[in-house]
Predict the structure.
Amino acid sequence: MKKLFNQNGEWHWFTGGLLVSLLSMITYFLFQALSYKDYPFGITAGIGYISALFRYIFPGLTTNPVIKNLSTDTAAFVEFFLLIGIVVGGYTGAKFSHQYQPEIIPAVWSKYHGANIWKRFAVVLIGGFLMGWGAILASGCTTGNILQGWAHLSLGSMVAGASFFVTGIITTKLLYRQMGGVK
């Protein structure tokens, strides 16, 4: 039984796959019941809902039609709580696997790029911007496209997911040249 839950300190692939499949089915029906939408969940609208909360601090957001729509959209409200669940679930999973070791600069980054926090921050910021831009181009985030779209055999999500995967490989090869990437 231990092999189902632990493989070299990480979750076993079968256990993870089974849990993601069950989660996909449960959240699809739950999202449908709570938001009256007949499509799978994602987290992009949840981020929009958070932006809508800041419309009082940043008045320029009140004229944005997307933000205005998300401030009252039930689906965005449900996805906001999904974002909270991702943080809590990630922390819980890390604690159960005894792998929780918070670090600002991961060891592999420090080994190949140094311990400069500003360089790390700049790369993370640029990467986050590119992920957001990709989510706009793909009409959804990686969570919705891969975890939900693939489970529902969506061709667009499969193309988007394959693009995410290939881009991840290229980026890794560029960032970690010393480990066998582009010379």
